[in-house]
Amino acid sequence: MEAVRLLTDEEIKEYVDIVANAYPGFGFNTPEEKQKMEERLIKNQKEDSTISVFGCFRDNILLGGMKLYDFRMRLGSQKVDAGGLGMVAVHLMHKKEKAAKEIVTFFLRHYRERSFPIAMLYPFRPDFYKNMGFGFGTKMNQYSIRPKDLPRGGVKSRVSFALEEDKPLLLNCYARIAGKTNGMLDRTEADFSYTFSIPQNKIAVYKKDGRIEGYIVFMFKKASQENGLKNDIFIKEFLYEDAEALRSLLTFLNTQEDQINRVILNTFDESFHHLLLDPRNSTDNLMTAVYHESNLQGVGLMYRVTDTRVLFDALKEHNFNNRSCKLRLNIKDSFIEENNRSITVHFTDGRAVMVDGGEYEATVGMDIADFSSLIVGAVDFKTLLNYGIAGISDYKYADTVGRIFEMPGKPTCVTLF
Description:
Elements lengths: L1 E5 L2 H14 L8 H17 L3 E8 L2 E15 L2 E13 L8 H15 L4 E4 L4 H5 L4 E2 L3 E6 L13 E3 L5 H12 L10 H9 L4 E7 L2 E12 L8 E10 L2 H12 L5 E8 L18 E2 L3 E2 L2 E4 L3 E4 L2 H7 L10 E8 L8 E8 L2 E4 L7 E6 H9 L4 H6 L4 E2 L5 H7 L13
Parallel strand pairs: 4-5, 11-12, 17-20
Antiparallel strand pairs: 1-2, 2-3, 3-4, 5-16, 6-16, 7-12, 7-15, 8-9, 9-10, 10-11, 13-14, 17-18, 18-19, 20-21
Helix pairs in contact: 1-2
């Protein structure tokens, strides 16, 4: 029988070997790299109360492990607790023995018991987690842009490289943006210390009146193995508070044309191509008729509601767009039996109150995975209805329900874990 518990310092060393074998492409292969990871995990667990390293054991044999994160997430107009799952790894000799299922089950129970309404993860296989009730988040768009196709403007003289003493200003900038952006996670100054500690990272900031109002974290990548002068800029994070900060930082990138082949930029912004002179990437591919390939898209972060009752309690101060309706929600959850139930929620002028056994005007039903995507704002209710993924007992309430669950933008998360 499997048991999941916190790993000791000595067991973390064994876990690092499992991670290195599970993800050989991640570059944790040499003894030096493994030791660095081991030291970092031990330090995380000892010094950061929001990070824990767990292992799954059978007969005292370590089958695999995971790293758990306690987050605070912006959901609509509220901050809620969210649990993050990372570094899920199973021993090569114990694949297909359901260790991964045990790990994820413990993860969900761990945060459900602590009344964290949201669980989140980056999937190694989306279908595996969809079957466990995780719903898809916002798609990522990756652009490969010639520097000269980025617009110029703003005030480039306000752009400079960040210094160590800028960390509090960077944190304040991030916090202001996260405070009004659906899906973003809280960060600490230690997070920016880690960003500074990576030698390849460059941080360009837009600073106005002593305040950072936008920044780019980037690194150089070879664009050619044969030509050492041909390099790309790979942007790891790009945040800004207003158009002037955005334009100033884009001007900085535009002026790198003499040395840089392409700017590789990941964004959740579905309208980003409107900024570009030429949004085409470097493939020259054409799709149906004359539609030029502009960017790659990918699914990534997935979300799951651990407990619908705890969720609505956490959102009791959230304004569900001033709508009023008495709804019965039939949420199917085949993975967490206690969450596989109906609840009645009365929305009055945008405020939600759960009413056990209360009257209702309409019944809405869907799977927990799709409800999770809906509640974080990754998909709208009318789309789920049109796809036949969700159902409603009386279609005249569809528009009202759609507005109730409409969030201020799709969830944005730039934190990797």
